[in-house]
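agent> Task received from the user: take the single chain below, predict its 3D structure, and emit structure tokens. No templates, no multimer pairing.
agent> Plan: (1) validate residues, (2) run structure prediction, (3) serialize to tokens, (4) report one or two observations.
agent> Step 1 OK, no nonstandard residues flagged.
tool_call: predict_structure(input=
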Amino acid sequence: MGVATQAGDLRCYGSTSHRFTYPIPKGAEIADLHLWQVGPGHCSAIVSVVATNPKPPAAYKALLAGLPMLSHVTVEVNPRIAAM
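)
tool_result: status=success, residues=84
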């Protein structure tokens, strides 16, 4: 599995911004990301992933395990549909 790295600022409403990098498997992309502050320094996230060769949600969730500000993460995975 090839891996690409992306970087971004993770900001929960009402909290400070955190700089982070996360590996994204080749053929996958984050289609949608929602963050909510659930307590001081703690956020909840819902991530929607679209992938050519989808993996179980737990595989993508594990990629975010090193972000201590994420207290609860839900991952939805959908297969990429080829354009007609």
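agent> Step 4: summary for the user.
The chain has one helix and five strands.
agent> Done.
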